[in-house]
Structure formats: C-alpha cells, structure tokens
Amino acid sequence: MSISGTTTRARAAGVAAAAAVLAAGAGAYVAEAGQETAPQATRAALAQVVNPAGARGRTLGLSRVTIPPHVSLALHRHAGNQIAYIEKGTLTYTVRTGSVPVYRGAADEDPRLVRTIGAGSTGRVRAGEWVVERPHVIHFGANTGDRPVRILLATLFRNGSPPSIVVPD
Predict the structure, then answer these.
(1) Considering the entire predicted model, what is its pTM?
(2) CATH of 42-166, one of 2.50.20.10, 2.60.120.10, 3.40.50.2000, 3.40.50.300
(3) Of the candidates 138, 134, 141, the residue with the CA atom closest to the CA atom of residue 165
(4) Residue 86, exposed/middle/buried by CB under 10 A (0-12, 13-18, 19+)?
(5) How far apart are CA 128 and CA 154, in angstroms?
(6) Are 45 and 61 in contact (CB under 8 A)?
(7) What is the pLDDT of residues 56-106, one digit of tens each?
(8) 95 in helix, strand or coil?
(9) pLDDT digits (tens, 9 = 90+) for 147-167
C-alpha cells in the first residue's frame, strides 16, 4: 500500500467523520427547533386539472392531509364541493352550520350512509369512511388520538380558490 493511498483514505475518513458530526448537530437542531413549534396539519396537492370537461371555471383536485396527534384544524368552509376519505386514523369532526353525510363502502358499489353530523354536533369519522362537504357547511376536524390521521381529498372548486376559507370563531 502506498503512502498516498493511506493519506487519501485518512482524509476520506476524516471528511466522513466531520460530515457525521455536522449531521448529528443538524439533527439535534431540527429536533430542538421542532420542540419550539407546535405541530401542524400538512396538505400535499397530489394532482389537479384546471377546467376539466363539464366543469369550466373549476379545478378538480386530489390532495392528502395529515393531521398530527392532538391537533385541530381551524373552523372553515370550502369554495366548492369536497369529498374527504379517512385513509388512516379517526377524525373528530364538528359541524357548526349545515350537515355532513358520513358514508362507508366503495362509492361505485352502493355505499352505505352511516350517519349524518348536523349543525352543533360532533362525530367520529373512522378509517374507510368518507364525508361530502358542501360550500355552505362550516366545520372543523381534529385528531384527538395518539397517531396521525391521514385524509384523501377530492375537490371541485372555482379556479383560483383556496383549499379552505377560515371562518372567525
């Protein structure tokens, strides 16, 4: 083995060790920073089409929302129709105005109406169930459990509309 080969290996090991120390430090910083900020729900836009056939002036969208444990969404409404399918966990769902039907089963195979959550009521929407939210319904969801709630959303909103419109409490 040559001296230059040993030196190159030693430098590479030193660089790797330094990188590991920096990564560990960055990981500690992220963990520390995460403790300072309250967890929040996240929304990922998975797919969309603007002006789909039969719905000019609308955007058809597909999104995924993840609500961490012990997090509530703001009171809100939507600018169009939304279907929310609970993929994982149990959503605690409160309706202030209007009513929301809760279904179970495949939409194309005669889904079953499980219950309706009316104005002033709170209900649980479990994995495998889905709700239909109309534009006039003011509501919010919360994750009161210890594991994340994951929701798939299909939306048909006016072009340029936000995903939700916060309503003062």
Answers:
(1) 0.77
(2) 2.60.120.10
(3) 138
(4) buried
(5) 15
(6) yes
(7) 999 999 999 999 999 999 999 999 999 999 999 999 999 999 999 999 999
(8) strand
(9) 999 999 999 999 999 999 999
